[in-house]
């Protein structure tokens, strides 16, 4: 009966291969048998349902993995997934190239081609990721031996089991073990293979960028007058007003770098962790000229740096017991929100400069340590209140004083302030405010008297870049930088507790130090992230990962990206597009999305050595202009997302090709498609004959 089932399956596949269609990839195991349905999930490899492994195979792979004795967790995670590719229902194709079997699955090594049958998961450069993560890690009994691949690497080094001891470079390694998903073939990207269908055909194939500026900026805010202008600010303390060119014009950002809109560098304390962290323009800026800057100051160097210390008796913290941090005394550095105004003109929206003179000090607070102080500010599109994102204050890591869960502390919180109705001096003292602002009457303290009245949400570690969806303002998205394991994005709601430091993401967290006491998981109702990624998912050349929040994509320039939330990692090696299904459900699925620069970019992009990725440097922030186009603010310059066809990416909803851009790649000829299919037909037919002979 088993032989008859296998024969039937192979014969059906044989018939299907003879039929015309966009994909000739079929589920088939390495031994040319049909995948079978598992009664229970495998304990080691992440396969359930259909698989090419039973529990015995699964145990064998686990023992093989353990024998490798890999000490690096990120590399171990990748090697485990590569070993488990043998269980994939498409393993026969993953482990065969030109009818030659391979010891390792073909590792995805380029973007999916326009005619690929494989899903967008295969768009990442998985082979490069393996090399970058594992190149200097000892791997006993490595599956990447040159002799196993039948190619020549470096001379054998018996004292080393590292990839760099066997292969000269990433290029050589990926030439041996990599491959693209194209012409109907498959490649392995670290996840079980899935194929495109009509529901995913409109998924973005990649993000096409053009470089329109060389400057390094931390924030971008569209001009409130609705024009094609936007403000850009540097961490050092300058703000520029720039004109954004039309797409396809070949022009760059229009502004004079020597003439900033305002220069606050005398007030701003700048180094790696400090500087001007945000800016916000009043919704009625075009009429009143009011704008706000969020920055850090040093009370040793500037007499205007005079805030109270956030480590105080109200939050059970004694600053005299805090040790200096990176040479700084507790609360030497402070966070400031100050109000300014554009220079007088008949129409404020036409003003192109402002004087660096404070109109009003909105907020000042001393910082206990030298990291995790957020600093972004933005106005709510529906309520007109100013939202202020504040980190947990840093320290030795793990929020040792538990500020994020302390309802009397403003650290690790998102605040919501009224800057239109100014309090009297008596009210500031009575309410114990940190500056010149009022409290919105519907802030959560009205329902929880334990909360400081400024607090809108709590339990955050270091929120880095938040945004409101321009079509659904109730979707207030904030990225929150993780500690050791997980980077997250949250939907911020009134009074929401996002778990830190009881949880990191949705994982329980145990701090190494607890001078500020602990909060039990039973005492809170945490709201877990709607999306994010583990540190092991990204290249960790710089140390650990650090998330940068973005925007819901609302531009029509890339129809396949429309409605997806775009975010990235600071170290510029990865970006993700998150899809909500069904809409308004809060259920998101994130996909790592490849990106490249168009050849007709106004400023030519440079590439990373040994990679097709543009050399962005660090992704500091994302931006959105009044036309809803999306921007990436990186250490190497300003990039704009443009029509996918300019980078030869395809989108089923996009029929236009930008003027002057390279034409999309041509589909393969019928001959090349038949050539690949014919090889599979011969292989399957041979297997069919063998099974028939064995059954007789």
TrEMBL record:
Pfam family of the protein (one): GSDH
Membrane topology: Lipid-anchor
Localization: Cell membrane
UniProt domain Glucose/Sorbosone dehydrogenase: residue ranges: 222-527
GO molecular function: oxidoreductase activity
Keywords: Cell membrane, Glycoprotein, Lipoprotein, Membrane, Oxidoreductase, PQQ, Signal
Family annotation (SUPFAM superfamilies): Soluble quinoprotein glucose dehydrogenase
Domain of life: Eukaryota
Cofactors demanded by this protein: pyrroloquinoline quinone
N-terminal signal peptide: 1-25
Annotated TM spans: none
Family statement: Belongs to the PQQ oxidoreductase GdhB family.
Protein name in the entry: HEDGEHOG-INTERACTING PROTEIN
Species annotation: Salix purpurea (Purple osier willow)
